[in-house]
Write a structure and sequence with these properties.
About 50% of the residues lie in helices and about 15% in strands. It has a five-stranded parallel β-sheet with strand order 3-2-1-4-5, sandwiched between helices.
Length: about 170
């Protein structure tokens, strides 16, 4: 059961990241289709690695990163010729778009360390707060998320009518 939940979460995160890329301004999206994008990935685990391989196979230039880039050889080989490995700072400097896919508790420090390299770029973040791993900040984040999730939809979004749902 736990494995199904984990797979579902990974799928949902990947979908959310792809939806985020689809929401880029029209000019950026058109540019992305006519020329390959440069995508830096900070954290090349299940989510970052999967998305990076998919983006590389779609023709984009991808720089996977880790504190141990020598451990990413298999991932880079799977992604193909348009991918390479490096350190997190290299990925932040390299990408027009940067995907941060690291434990939630590490995000603030990465943001501080790489602020200059990330300035003005599209940054996507895939972390989920787990109190057992991320401490008090995860508990606070979950409380804020829970209150946000109960908000009524604004005028920019309307749920479909029941008759249109299969």
């Amino acid at each position: 059961m736990k494995e199904i939940c984990v797979r579902r979460r990974i799928t949902l995160r990947a979908f959310a990241v792809c939806a985020g890329l689809a929401m880029l301004p029209a000019g950026s999206f058109a540019r992305a289709q006519s020329t390959p994008m440069k995508i830096g990935i900070i954290g090349s685990g299940n989510i970052g690695g999967t998305l990076g391989v998919l983006w590389a196979k779609a023709g984009h230039q991808v720089l996977f990163s880790s504190r141990h880039p020598d451990e990413l050889v298999d991932l880079v080989n799977r992604a193909g010729a348009s991918a390479r490995a490096g350190m997190p700072r290299e990925a932040a400097a390299f990408g027009d778009v940067v995907l941060i896919s690291i434990p939630y508790g590490a995000v603030p420090q990465v943001g501080r360390d790489l602020a200059a390299d990330l300035a003005g770029k599209v940054v996507l973040e895939t972390g989920n707060p787990y109190p057992s791993r991320d401490g008090a900040m995860a508990t606070t984040s979950r409380m804020v998320s829970a209150s946000t999730a109960t908000a009524r939809p604004g005028s920019s979004w309307r749920p479909p009518r029941r008759s249109t749902v299969c």
